[in-house]
Amino acid sequence: MEEEARSFLGSFVEEFPAALEDGSPLPVSPLSRRVTLEELHGESLELGLRLLAARGAPAGLSAILCQAALSQLLQNDLSPFHCAQEAEHSQEEEQQVVLLQSDAVQRLFLNKLIDVTLARHRDFPKGRPSPSPSRFLHCSVHAIKNTRRKMEDKHLALAEFNQLFGIQSGVDCAYYAVFDGHGGVDAATYAAAHLHVALSGQETLQSDTATAFKSAFKHTDDMFRGKAKRERLRSGTTGVAVLIQGQQLSVAWLGDSQAILVREGQAITLMEPHKPDREDEKQRIEELGGCVTFMGCWRVNGTYAVSRAIGDFDQKPYVSGDADCSTTQLLGDEDYVLLACDGFFDAVKPSEVPQLVLDALHQSVEPEGGRDAPLEQSEDAVGLRVAQRLVSHAKAAGSSDNITVMLVFLRPLQQLRAQNSSTGAAGDAPQQ
């Protein structure tokens, strides 16, 4: 780990020996042209993590550097970056929202990031041990556009949740999420940049994670409403997010993206996706004055095929922004958590997942010596191949949608591969 950090810091200071000059192009593009002060948090962290990941920074070190740079940025007077007041404003707006020029303010953020990274390089390794890797073994993700015209899925894997937000609870915390956009990618991009930031700021995060998650989803939806109004955006996104705190796993969701837990080769049901034809969802929509009709698939008011989402403001409150959340205690015998969009789950049943993963683990090494050959490839490489094979299976099973599959492995792949394949298709087990 130290050697990896040393190598990254050395190459980084060669590329960025000093601050970026005014007017020079940014080495990485911001997500937006203009941001509110609240949006600045998520967009800066996203920008910094993207910049550092592209240069091979260890994930734990990236989180610490970005957190330090953002803290320094927020101590600055940001009024020089305010956008000029626009002439036209909605009459229903009670107060003017202050917007910041992204390029200019993010140049300042990146210069703060360069400063803290150069300082880290100067001090390395005196008195500052490199952050230890997360206890979570690794996360493997594969995503494809498939036959759709555009890729509207987004995802985020953040095993360094505590480091990124300076949380010192003493409990390891990791966050993973998949967002399935529709009508454009804007809502999914927004949720991927801001939901975890909103979650980190919830006072009940440690004591009542379900309430914290629900509030974070609602807050992110409210924030996106402001952006959608300013920029005339019409997109929406479903989403599923997992937070692992020590031995507690919480999953929160809006819409039909899903997460399942696999324990000793059996799929554990964690949630029930929100679909328009679900009886309680249909009743909720009809009591609000809406309707659910079949037009090739079940749709809310003849438009959206989802009943809950971030965004879709032209169909609120029928398309609800209220998330659900469930919590499960980890017993130590869990294999992995799988998160995926409906492009996967519309073609693959949750009960099929354990056997598919087990088969993929075996197939990933067979060319080098058969089913009983040692697992010589790196676990990251094998995990990626498993994710790829799951996506390929969903596509072969008839999915034409965008497909994203994320696997968070909770035990070494060598152990999973050693499991008797007969236990891999045991079907769904109830939540425990």
Automatic annotation (TrEMBL):
It comes from the Eukaryota. This is Protein phosphatase 1E. It comes from Zoarces viviparus. Belongs to the PP2C family. Its EC number is 3.1.3.16. InterPro entries: PP2C, PP2C_BS, PPM-type-like_dom_sf, PPM-type_phosphatase-like_dom. GO terms for cellular component: cytosol; nucleus. GO terms for molecular function: metal ion binding; protein serine/threonine phosphatase activity. Heterotrimer. Interacts with PAX1 and ARHGEF6 (or ARHGEF7). It catalyses: O-phospho-L-seryl-[protein] + H2O = L-seryl-[protein] + phosphate; O-phospho-L-threonyl-[protein] + H2O = L-threonyl-[protein] + phosphate. Its cofactor is Mg(2+); Mn(2+). It is found in: Cytoplasm; Nucleus. Residues 137-410 form the PPM-type phosphatase domain. It is an enzyme of class 3 (hydrolase). It holds the Pfam family PP2C. SUPFAM superfamilies: PP2C-like. Keywords: Cytoplasm, Hydrolase, Magnesium, Manganese, Metal-binding, Nucleus, Phosphoprotein, Protein phosphatase, Repeat. PANTHER family: PROTEIN PHOSPHATASE 1F (PTHR13832:SF233), PROTEIN PHOSPHATASE 2C (PTHR13832).
